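User: I'm writing a tutorial on reading structure tokens. Could you give me a worked example: one chain, its sequence, then its tokens, then a sentence or two explaining what the tokens reveal?
Assistant: Sure. Here is the example chain.
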Amino acid sequence: MMRIINNWLNILFILSVIAITSALVAEFIFDLVPCKMCLKQRHPYYIIIFLVILSYIFRQTKNIWLFIFNQIALLYGFFYAVWHVGIEQKILPGPTSCSGTLSQTNSIQNLKQQITNQDIVNCSEITWAVFSLSAATLNTLFLLFLLIFNTIFIVQNFYGTKKN
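And here are its predicted structure tokens:
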């Protein structure tokens, strides 16, 4: 456990690169077009990669703000991942442009506008799954794992007992 904590920044960087690479391979090699929610779930990984690179450039790898910003990015991604799972399971409503639903209207022009403004990929449809777990579900679990370990790192390194 101590080795993980001591190398957490490197691990976080590598896992973020793997997550983004996997998403981009799925999109560009396997032609799995992402929905809006999928794209939003990529943001924290991009942010973490950027922050870690900056921290190494400026030699600020032990700065608490780096880990707090990483935590905020992870929370952002976790929020969208949970929301996406809720949309897939028909528990939560999605954004109107993403959910594939049309509002009632008496105007053909308004209906045409709604249809043309909708995304091609519906957020409520599961594009692919592994062991009956959608990509959004897997990402939710992955982000939860990263949130837990980032929290442990922050607590142990910045709020843990001081050594004399």
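What the tokens reveal: The chain has one domain: 2-158. The first helix runs from residue 2 to 6.
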